[in-house]
Design goal:
By secondary structure, the chain is an alpha/beta fold. Helices cover about 35% and strands about 25% of the residues. The chain folds into three domains: about 80 residues, Arc Repressor Mutant, subunit A, CATH 1.10.10; about 100 residues, Periplasmic binding protein-like II (D-Maltodextrin-Binding Protein, domain 2, 3-Layer(aba) Sandwich); about 100 residues, D-Maltodextrin-Binding Protein, domain 2, CATH 3.40.190.10. The chain starts with a helix and ends in an 18-residue tail after the last helix.
């Protein structure tokens, strides 16, 4: 009876609801009358040509929708216990994280062949619900409160330069030394040219001078590796075997870190395809409080 009332209230029509439910109009009317009798309130105002939800009906409709969602979630949860995860799984991530995805998703594809991955890369902030995203990989310290965010890893940030650059321009020993150097800086937007260094409760804000700016981390990292500039680089952007090309400086100061999250819309029931994908990412990346990309043999920055 609850579903019948919801159908009429949503369509503002007994005839349209009857067609949707494949019931006779008389049966729909009897169901709604039975609901009104049970709750002791008039839920719908009827005229010859229209149906309108009353104030009591609006309140009851909201509660009905919540209950029906809970019923549907319960049914889906039980079906999920026995059904193989399947269907299209839409995943979004920043462009710069894209090079790590093959190693993370290829094992998942082997284990769950019934799931078809649709992977989208973008540096703009996406509306998950509007754009139909199931899992959004975000690098941030402030995920949206209305979503569920499961931590996957952290990525540390440091100042990096090539051995050739240091031979030519010298090695900065303090944050203040950085004003004499030029940097490869990310600029989609805003331009990231001011960084705060912390040590022992002291904070120093340093404004950096650009030698090159770009919205492509690849362009910037290549410039650093070629010895043309220094870079403030999070570990996940470092090249393979980075210590052969670049070296971190000022590691006794902290530039902080960013968290890598798997974000998905807040709902009572999480589809199995989302759950197994996020679990697979956590298994692949290990301890979510650790940085899997920080180079072995290089001491981490001061925390």
């Amino acid at each position: 009876m609850m579903r019948v009332f919801v159908a009429v209230a949503r369509r503002n029509s007994f005839v349209a609801a009857a067609g949707d439910l494949r019931m006779s109009r008389a049966s729909v009317s009897k169901h709604v009358a039975a609901v009104e009798s049970r709750v002791g309130a008039r839920l719908l105002d009827r005229t010859t040509h229209s149906v309108r939800v009353t104030e009591a009906g609006r309140i009851y409709l909201e509660r009905c929708l919540e209950c029906l969602q809970a019923f549907d979630d319960a049914d889906a949860a039980l079906a999920d216990l026995t059904a193989e995860p399947r269907g299209v799984l839409r995943v979004a991530a920043p462009f710069d994280f894209g090079r790590h995805l093959p190693a993370l998703i290829t094992p998942f594809m082997r284990v769950y062949p019934a799931i078809m991955l649709d992977v989208r890369l973008s540096n703009r902030t996406l509306d998950m619900v509007k754009e139909g995203i199931d899992v959004y990989l975000r690098i941030t310290n402030s995920p949206e409160a209305e979503s569920i965010a499961r931590p996957l890893a952290v990525t540390r940030i440091a100042v990096w330069g090539s051995h050739a650059y240091f031979r030519k321009h010298g090695r900065p020993r303090t944050p203040a030394d950085l004003v004499r150097h030029r940097f490869a800086l990310f600029d989609e937007p805003p331009l990231l040219d001011e960084w705060v260094f912390e040590r022992g409760g002291k904070r120093k804000a340093i404004k950096l001078s650009p030698a090159i700016v770009s919205n492509s981390s690849g362009v910037l990292v290549d410039a650093v590796c070629a010895g043309e500039a220094l870079g403030v680089i999070p570990s996940f952007l470092l090249p393979p075997e980075p210590t052969a090309l670049v070296e971190a400086v000022l590691l006794d100061w902290s530039l902080g870190q960013r968290c890598v999250y798997a974000v998905y819309p807040h709902r009572r029931f999480v589809p199995s395809k989302v759950r197994v994908f996020v679990d697979g990412l956590r298994t692949a990346l290990g301890d979510p409080s650790q940085d899997p990309w920080w180079p072995t043999g290089t001491p981490p920055p001061r925390s």
